[in-house]
Amino acid sequence: MNIKKMSYVLSIMAIVLFLLITENSFASGNTDFKVRVIHASSGSQYMDPALVDLTSELTSVFKYTSYKLLESDSLSIGFNQSKTSTLPGGRVLEIRPVEMKKGRIKLNLIIRKSGKQIFKTVVQLRNNSSITLGGPEYKGGYLLFNIFGSN
Amino acid sequence: MKECRKYRDEMLGLFADQELEPPLHDQVAKHLKSCEACSSYVESVHNFSYAYTSFIKDEVSSAEISIEQSRRMKPEIRSGLSLSKLLNPVFFKRICLPVISFVAIILVSVNVFNFNMAGLLDPGVEPSAIVDSVDGEVSSVMIFETARDHQTVIWFKEVI
Predict the structure, then answer these.
(1) Contacting B residues, span 2-41, partner chain A, CB-CB under 8 Å
(2) What is the dihedral of CA B57, B61, B62, B65, to 10 degrees?
(3) CB contact (8 A) between residue A104 and residue B116
(4) Distance between CA A36 and CA A147 in Å, rounded?
């Protein structure tokens, strides 16, 4: 094998090794989250315009007739860092992205009330998609927390 | 240079090598009987040819043997062409190496760049979130997925 061919092969190997070593670095440092707090109830029929992207999904699984957006919060969080979003009823949502692997963001979601951990889940959220948590009772209805993540 | 000019040197050389046609050969032979100059020239050509052929005789024999050996080896060489073609440096460089490199890059990219092949083929097939664990002060937990967009929903009931 001449030098030119050898250098070609070594270049390919170097690129492969570089990609393997720096696998996680290709995921952006911060993950952007959008948290929407939704009040679902069986009152008069109403669909908040800000929830148009969730309408069909929500109505397909829940029997409620009214969906109102209470709060919306945007967070930008680095891996292995956490930020909180205030929820109605003295609750706090803590989001902690852990890593990005195979197109999914692994993150910890913790809901606390009065400083006490009420609910915790570890999920692998597909990039640019959302998960909905629910539903603590609130003012004659229930609270839904839609969390959208994008890296 | 010989004195007689009846026959050219080339003609006499051919005579010495026995390469003249019989009628012409006989004519030259008859001339040589009476011409000392041409006879001397032919004799000198004979001596040179003898010395030359005696020198190269072995070399020619060796060449004949190697030619014979290569003829005998040709079938074996032909039978190995398919393997030798694959190992041919040009074939390997121009075809195999780029193909192997391309396949390797694709395989690494699928893994390293977090490509989800199932998601690429049909992003709607997989759920939006895969639940690894659930914990907390809850009395019940339900995990389900919407039909159309495969949205993951976790429904929990707090312990009052």
Answers:
(1) none
(2) 170
(3) yes
(4) 7
